[in-house]
Amino acid sequence: MKNIVLSALLSSLLLTGGLQAKETASKDASVKEVNKISVSNAKSDAKENASTLVQEAIESLKHAHEAMMALEKNDAKGATEKLESALGKLEVVLASKKVPKLLPIDSIIKVNEFVGTSKDVETALKAVRTLLNKNKVQEARALMLPLQSEIDITTVSLPLGSYPDALKLAAKYVHSDELDKAKDVLSIALSTFTSVTAIVPIPLVKATDLIVAAEVVSKDDKDRALMYLDSASESLKVAHALGYVSKSETTYKVLQEQIEAVQKEIRGPNKAEKLFETLKSSLKEFKEKVFSEKSSENKNSK
Q1: Which residue, of 7, 162, 262, 266, has the greatest Cβ tally within 10 A?
Q2: Within this chain, do residues 170 and 264 fall inside the same structural domain, yes or no?
Q3: Residue 73 belongs to domain spanning
Q4: Which of 234-238's residues contact partners 24+ apart within 8 Å by CB, and which partners?
Q5: pTM
Q6: Can you tell me the mean pLDDT for 70-93?
Q7: Residue 298 has pLDDT above 60, yes or no
Q8: How many domains does the chain have?
């Protein structure tokens, strides 16, 4: 397991590159083109906002892993050296006035995009309920798996509250020639991580960009603006159907009503500037309070 973790860390470092500049949809872009650019930019944002990895923590974990390999060979001297190096890499972090509770060692971005409509979601959920009523759980599960449309940003961290102490205890056991105890302690230290996943619902990202695109063309191309807003409305329906909820006082119903108000204004006097600002503000606040973070602790002893 430790080899896999270290391999993933090294891969993440090697694959880290420069971020692409944000792309903007043209005024005559189709809904599909706006959505494609929207998702692409959201992926770039995810990379940009991913937690900065703590290099000292990564190197410390590498030395701790090497210490375990030395212990497997009953090499007490080698294990001691590697444990000292592992602790040494944390000295700068531990000496900081604002010592973090978690040291990020890996950041993983996963994208799952649902390409169907809100009615497709409703149809699938109806089929799931039917299967569950017949106790066909696995068939229902297979239908549920595609029902997500999100960018997951997972940060894996070492808990600073326990990891350094585990290294010190392992070193103590090595010094007293209790290598089996040292291996047990180090094994736990090398397999105890905390992961936090931030979830970005793609339909809400699409709705936001479609509303912005509608505002840009609302004066010169009413039909296109109305088309963008219709699609934004549908994106919100998809988000709602997929169960992306928010702690905001704003609701999906309120957002839909605001879109309808903007569309009515565009069809009439077309003085929708303030309505657009209200709509964008409401959706921004709604997105910021989406229940979108989950955390877990991985504790697997050898």
Answers
A1: 262
A2: no
A3: 1-14+49-105+155-192
A4: 234/117, 234/118, 235/203, 235/204, 235/206, 235/207, 235/210, 236/203, 236/204, 236/207, 237/118, 238/114, 238/116, 238/117, 238/118, 238/121, 238/149, 238/203
A5: 0.78
A6: 93
A7: no
A8: 2
